[in-house]
């Protein structure tokens, strides 16, 4: 009885609301209400992982295999609102839940035995210190739970890069030159790797990371992001 009282008190002082619509969450809901989960712009990239427009984006930049994204990115849409929560509202648990949800879809589609490890795109240590977490790593942890595949921080970011927003595809690749390195503690030789990030626009960052992994002995690299768009 006392536990219920404490819970009711905490819900009153620290209300749990859906991060998209603001409705009060039920006990079985975490960051998003069931209604908002049902309206997420989930893609079908997992049904055509080697023949889709995301694959076209990375052609000529890297020899990756499958390319997938959980959500379709649209400006002002729910996917952008979720990414804003991750980057600016201190919601690491949201990224983890999104990873878990997409991981279940991938597992149900037959990808549960596809990878030896999950590797997140790293943030620069200064940026991660400011934010408090790496949203790509949290997304990867959610995937890790659903797919039963270990997550390893096999990459490190050694250079602070300027914003990519206004850069072209080739300019973004130039901006990524020599940014990423293999962690001295990583063991990626002959491993099938799922490389994960929060969003894909041109694919330059993901391809730069994939190229480092492949150059250091990875067997193959596939890409997954929370969202992707034009």
* Large-scale geometry: globular
Low-confidence stretches are none
What is the N-to-C succession of helices and strands? HHHEHHEHHEHEEHE
SS summary, helix count: 9
Number of domains: 1
Tell me briefly what this model is.
With 230 residues, this protein is of the alpha/beta class. The protein has one domain: Rossmann fold (3-Layer(aba) Sandwich). The protein has nine helices and six strands.
Overview of the structural elements:
Helix content is 39%, strand content 15%. It is α/β, with parallel strands linked by helices. The protein has one domain (40-228): Rossmann fold (3-Layer(aba) Sandwich). The strands form 2 sheets. A 4-stranded parallel β-sheet has the order 1-6-5-2, with helices on both faces. A two-stranded antiparallel sheet has the order 3-4. Helix 5 packs parallel to helix 7 and helix 8 crosses helix 9 (204-215). The chain is globular, with a radius of gyration of 18 Å. It starts with a helix and ends with a strand.
